[in-house]
């Protein structure tokens, strides 16, 4: 069974840090490009960052550049999103997405991140 499970969300004060994880099972993880998205209340889901199968990193969202980093550990079948200098506007449900080389997409269930004092 194919599964992608996010973890690491929570409540953090402005300026704080969190590291999200997305663990894969039932797939050959290294063959998937992995992305992180987020969706704030009342807003559309937006792409934050992608890391390709080859490890190329693309930060798609300007507001997180210099603060967020995506990485992957193929030995652990896990992709990470390191989030630093968090702001209240980063509050959202964060999702990982896997895309196979033939274009099949798989989504995790999401993890809530709340940035509040």
Structure description:
The strands form two sheets. Strands 2, 4, 5, 6, 9, 10 and 11 form a seven-stranded mixed sheet that branches. A hairpin with a 6-residue loop joins β4 and β5. The protein has 117 residues and is an all-beta fold. The protein has no helices and eleven strands. It starts with a strand and ends with a strand. The model has no long low-confidence stretch (mean pLDDT 96). Helix content is 0%, strand content 51%.
Rg of Cα set: 13 Å
**Biggest sheet record:** 7 strands, mixed
Unreliable runs: none
* Beta strand %: over 45%
* Number of contiguous helices: 0
Arithmetic mean pLDDT: 96
Topology:
Blueprint (H helix, E strand, L loop, with lengths): L2 E5 L2 E3 L5 E8 L7 E7 L6 E6 L5 E3 L8 E6 L4 E6 L8 E8 L5 E3 L3 E5 L2
Parallel strand pairs: 2-11
Antiparallel strand pairs: 1-3, 3-8, 4-5, 4-9, 5-6, 7-8, 9-10, 9-11
Concise account of the structure shown:
This protein is mainly beta and 117 residues long. The chain has no helices and 11 strands.
Which short descriptors sum up this protein?
51% strand, mainly beta, 4-stranded antiparallel sheet, single chain, 117 residues, 7-stranded mixed sheet
């Amino acid at each position: 069974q194919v599964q992608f499970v996010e973890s690491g969300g929570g409540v953090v004060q402005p300026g704080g840090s969190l590291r999200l994880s997305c663990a894969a099972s039932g797939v050959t993880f290294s063959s998937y490009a992995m992305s992180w998205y987020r969706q704030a209340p009342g807003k559309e889901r937006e792409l934050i960052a992608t890391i390709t199968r080859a490890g190329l990193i693309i930060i798609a969202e300007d507001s997180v550049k210099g603060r967020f980093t995506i990485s992957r550990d193929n030995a652990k079948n896990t992709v990470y999103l390191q989030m630093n200098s968090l702001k209240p506007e980063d509050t959202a449900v964060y999702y990982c997405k896997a895309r196979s080389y033939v274009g099949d997409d798989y989504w995790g269930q999401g993890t809530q991140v709340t940035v509040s004092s």
